[in-house]
Amino acid sequence: MKQTPSIGVTLIIILTLLISTFEIKAQSNSEYTKEKAPGWFKQGEWLSHLKLKPHNSTDQLEFAKQYHTNKAAWDKAFTFMSDHNLDSLKSGKYIIDGENVFADVTDNPSSELKDAKWHSHRQYSDIFYVIKGKEKTGIAPIHGAPVITPFNDKGDSQFYNQEMKGSYYASNPDTFFILLPSDVHRPFIRVEGCNYVKRIRIKIKSISL
User: Fold this and answer.
1) Does 26 map to a domain?
2) The CATH number of the domain where 83 resides is what?
3) How would you write the chain as a 3-class SS string?
4) Binning pLDDT at 50, 70 and 90, where does residue 48 land?
5) Is 199 part of a structural domain of the chain?
């Protein structure tokens, strides 16, 4: 007669699995220090054959931790970009891995600076790439950023004072941005003389570190 494990044995098994998962996660994150992350980032094996270059504003240490904690999701995102002709993608939402990884392609004018909002996300990281045209993206560290609207789970956004300072970068087909939960960002800003922009934003489920 087949015996089923007792409740005590089952709890021990579950606890062992949880401890193992925590140890793997801790080990993965501890391998990437401020000194080691740039070398790993520059090597670029994580790009999954994607020929585009990541923008130098990327928080390399934070990205290394996020990537290795949820490698499968990030790999699917970069593979989607490398396997598709982005120029020919139609506007709309693309499901890559359920709610873990998905993309939206938009084809519309950028926002005026006064209408572009400083915000951050907690549940997702973003890969942001301008396929055609050009616009600007503002980026600032989340530490010390002045919050005006606290985080909302439904919208996965927290908003900040429009007058806060940050660095602004050109968003164009030469490079893509990796925006993490540690980044406050202000994307989709109009560049004078450019009235047409096609862009893709891929959302990757973030892991609490």
Assistant:
1) no
2) 2.60.120.370
3) CCCCCCHHHHHHHHHHHHHHHHHHHHHHHHCCCCCCHHHHHHHCHHHCCCCCEECCCCCHHHHHHHHHHCHHHHHHHHHHHHHCCHHHCCCEEEEEECCCEEEEEEECCCECHHHCCCEECCCEEEEEEEEECCEEEEEEECCCCCEEEEEECCCCEEEECCCCCCEEEEECCCEEEEECCCEEEEEEEECCCCCCCEEEEEEEECCCC
4) confident
5) yes
178: in domain: yes
Q: Is the pLDDT of residue 175 over 60?
A: yes
**What integer pLDDT is reported at residue 20 of this predicted model?**
45
Choice between 186 and 24, residue whose per-residue pLDDT is larger: 186
Q: Determine contact, residues 29/139, Cβ cutoff 8 Å.
A: no
Domain of residue 150 covers 31-205
The pLDDT > 70 percentage for the chain reads 85
Structure tokens at 122: 């907690």
Q: Which residues pair with 81 in a beta bridge?
A: none
7 located within any domain: no
Task: Please state, rounded to an integer, the average pLDDT across all residues of the chain.
Answer: 88
Residue owning tokens 């520059």: 42
What is the total count of domains within the chain? 1
